[in-house]
Design a protein that fits this description.
Elements: H1 2-10, H2 12-25, H3 27-31, H4 38-43, H5 47-58, E1 63-67, E2 72-74, E3 77-79, E4 84-88, H6 108-113, E5 134-136, E6 142-144, H7 164-181, E7 182-184, E8 196-198, E9 202-204, E10 211-213
Antiparallel strand pairs: 1-4, 2-3, 5-6, 7-10, 8-9
Length: 216
């Protein structure tokens, strides 16, 4: 939540676009001049909200560590049993263009799980841009695709975070309610910035907001 509020404060056009998307997704609450219920938020399809959350996660990385249970091989490199493997989701592919890899070195499972070729690395990957996670549909609308780019925030496979769905629903609900009711105004430079503390998760060193009540 700290990072979401910081990015929405720093990118006011994104904040406004998210608010408009929420109002459009739940018009009954707008018409009745009330806050949406949890059930309305849970059922609502708001691709831009999902994209904002996903882009925030991409820009607030931390390392995931796994220990090999048997001798294996990664891109032609031998990895012995018991080795600690660090997956740093802040390097090439996340914050900078990917490093070229010879496709012949990839395992069959790696090739099968590879992301579709839609992640645009020609843009500055250090910039907060939720649109990266939206893909066009045949009817011309945009749909959220969590596999549009690289992401390791909750881990993957059978060892991914069991609380992922609950955590996502919680932040989705809180972000929606805050943006529905308040505008996050610009804050003084000394209270801003994107420096963080690295730990189990990456937390902002400074997380302040200046709120102004809004109505649909």
């Amino acid at each position: 939540m700290g990072w979401v509020t910081k990015y929405l404060t720093g990118y006011p056009h994104t904040q406004s676009k998210l608010r408009d998307s929420l109002y459009s997704a739940i018009p009954e609450a707008v018409t009745e001049n009330r806050v949406p219920t949890f059930e309305e938020l849970r059922r609502a399809r708001v691709p831009y909200l999902e994209a904002v959350i996903e882009e925030t996660r991409r820009l607030t990385p931390f390392s995931i560590v796994r220990e090999t249970t048997h001798d294996t091989e990664i891109l032609g490199r031998k990895i012995p049993k018991g080795c600690q493997v660090f997956m740093v989701n802040a390097g090439p592919g996340f914050m900078s263009p990917s490093v070229h890899v010879d496709e012949n070195m990839r395992s069959p499972t790696s090739k099968a799980a590879r992301l579709r070729d839609r992640w645009d690395e020609t843009k500055d990957l250090r910039i907060f841009e939720p649109e990266r996670w939206l893909v066009p549909k045949e009817n011309g609308s945009l749909e959220f695709d969590g596999a549009a780019g690289p992401q390791l925030g909750f881990g993957m496979g059978i060892r991914q975070c069991w609380g992922r769905r609950m955590a996502h629903q919680a932040i989705r609900t809180i972000v929606a309610l805050v943006v529905w009711n308040f505008e996050m105004l610009e804050i003084p430079e000394e209270l801003g910035g994107y420096a963080g503390y690295d730990g189990i998760s990456r937390q902002p060193q400074k997380a302040f907001v200046r709120l102004r009540k809004v109505t649909p």
